Amino acid sequence: MMMTALARVRPEEVGIPPSAILRFMEDMTERNMNLHSFMLLRHGKVAAEGHYYPFRKNARHPIFSVSKSLTSAAIGIAIGEGLISLEDKVIAFFPDKQPEAVHPYTASMTIRHLLSMQTVHRKSTNKEARDIVFEYLHTPPSHPPGTVFAYDTTGTHTLCAILQRVTGTTVHEYLETRLFQPLGMQDIEWETCPLGINQGGSGAYCTPEDMARFGQLYLQDGVWNGIRILPEGWVEQSTSKAVDNSSAGILLEGRSGYGYQFWRARRQAYCAFGAGGQFILVMPEQDAVFVSTANTMLNRDEHQGILDSVWTHLVPSMSAFCPLDDADYQRMQQRLSALKLHLPKGSSSSTAATEVSGQQYRLSANEPGWMYCRFTFSEQQCELIFVHETGHARVLCSMNDWHIGPDPFYGLPSACGAVWADSSTCLIHIQLLEVQQMFILTCRFDRDGLVLQIKPAGALSTNHLDLVLIGTKIDAP
Fold first, then answer.
1. Which of 251, 285, 255 is nearest to 267 (CA)?
2. Helix 153-167 and helix 66-80, axial crossing angle in degrees, nearest 10
3. Helix or strand holding residue 22 (H, E)
């Protein structure tokens, strides 16, 4: 099936001055926001899109819990087809997974409860289990369903398992002809659990344009090119406030309420949200959709800064008419074409660089088993090598820029950059490009040695790499 690209226009053509988009980009820089991409649509047309080098326009990004909103759409379609209903009891779909004595709370839990995060559990159950649903139904409940908002990714996974039970196909397969193909969403990848059930709570990957198409579908009340994709009324029902989420551990739009796997936002807007700044913000009052991908996991709740900037700089500028501004438009285009991943401000060189270049350091005991490390500096590059018993791990960075190569911990494609924050402190940033993961290495040199802190932020299990290492100089023979 041929995909028709979303129409691209100058922002003024849809009532947005280029200066507003410039202010948004400047604000992201001032906030040190680790943005990977953004896209702004109005009246169904792309007014601006930015992709931060080395991420490319058609790169597929992990969208984490935005996957939940895809799952919600699948449930809505299945309800429209008469396969399930909101009041169906969850336990009824899994007679082979029920405990011998089903707790009354678990027995009364419905599909509606799963959708609105009002399940019987105070948090997700075992997401790493081979049979997630079995664990879900066997975990003792803490409260009756429908009484507490508690973010529960395993509940969303259970929705996928229900859909797979009634359709005989995965949610990904189910949506392929019902949602993805009609919308032209061609680059969807969706992880599965060991039993072959899509990880509906967090496992999908797609391009920013795929995300934008999904948001535009909701803005158009579930209709695409004149064809109804989602059942009539489902968009309003699933994106309206179903439950108060004041107790949510996530700060998002002032905790304005939660629907069926969608978060409410200010000014009658709503969004699909994934950890680290993955957003599909649908703004009916402005007839607009905003999409972002990012990694803000280093600082909890930093993702909110993306939406704050949208509401501060983009939304107030939207109007019915906007005159052409060639000068600002050219500045906007130049800025968009020069976007790069965030690197801290710093210098490419330092007096310490000459002193420590080539120096080897004996490292304090650490779980990865690194015995020594060595730095080599020039004004263009920084090389760091960790030596262990069976070999070595190496990272090569550009100074004040990004070098594309394997990371030292997993050997995966990465962007690696370094700056001197001051005369004795070198910061190394490593951003994996196919997995949502980054590492910040803070290297503090003094006369006697080195203190090296490694701080991971992302989706991988990296506790063994969350380290502070002491390096002692080894004199050259």
1. 285
2. 30
3. helix 18-30
Token couple for 429: 């940033």
Q: Give residues with Cβ within 8 angstroms of 146, minimum separation 6.
A: 113, 118
Q: What percent of the chain has pLDDT over 90?
A: 92
Q: Are 282 and 42 contacting, i.e. CB atoms less than 8 angstroms apart? A: no
CA pair distance 110, 88, nearest whole angstrom: 5
Q: Take residue 73 and report the two structure tokens written for it.
A: 């759409």
CA distance 128 to 126: 5
What is the maximum alpha-carbon separation in the chain? 78
Listed in sequence order, the residues at least 6 apart from 97 whose beta carbon sits closer than 8 Å to its beta carbon are: 131, 133, 134, 137, 138
Structure tokens at 86: 């909101």
In SS3 terms, 101-125 reads as CCCHHHHCCEHHHHHCCCCCCCCCC
Long-range contacts of residues 88-91, Cβ cutoff 8 Å, at least 24 apart: 88/162, 90/114, 90/137, 90/158, 90/162, 91/137
Radius of gyration of the chain (CA): 24
Cis check: omega of the bond before 323, within 30 degrees of 0: no
Nearest in space to 90 (alpha carbons), one of 116, 69, 68, 113: 113
SS3 80: helix
Domains of the chain and any CATH numbers: 11-337 (3.40.710.10), 351-474 (2.40.128.20)
Residue closest to 192 by CA, chosen among 206, 211, 172, 177: 172
β-strand 270-274 against 263-264: which pairing, if any?
antiparallel
In whole angstroms, what is the distance from residue 178 CA to residue 176 CA? Answer: 6
CB 330 within 8 Å of CB 41: no
Collapsing DSSP states into helix, strand and coil, what is residue 152? Answer: coil
The Cα 284–Cα 287 span in angstroms is 5
The pLDDT of residue 396 is: 97
Of 402, 333, 458, the residue nearest 18 (C-alpha): 333
Contact 451/457 with Cβ under 8 angstroms?
A: no
Give the residue from 225, 223, 292 showing the smallest Cα distance to 7: 225
Look at residue 49 and tell me whether its pLDDT is greater than 60: yes
Six-digit token string for 120: 């019987």
Residue 189 to residue 244: CA distance in whole angstroms: 32
Task: Express each pLDDT in 133-167 by its tens digit.
Answer: 999 999 999 999 999 999 999 999 999 999 999 99
